[in-house]
# Entry
Amino acid sequence: MDPTLPDMDIEGWFCQKCNSPLTMVKVNVTYMGASFAVDLPSCANCHTTMIPDFLAFGKMLEVEKLLEDK
Ligand SMILES: [Zn+2]
# Structure
């Protein structure tokens, strides 16, 4: 299973810590014991990764539900 995320337009997004432009990077996310790789906007300078609200409260829950149904 490959969770697909909505395309995120991160142009104009800047790191809240150091104000550097964000880039999309593949990161491993763990949620409720399940881990998978997703593309998230991340700061190349200080490595802060942004977790959008829709991912934390929408897609992540959806992914977990799919795993449970298996
Ligand atoms: Zn930063």
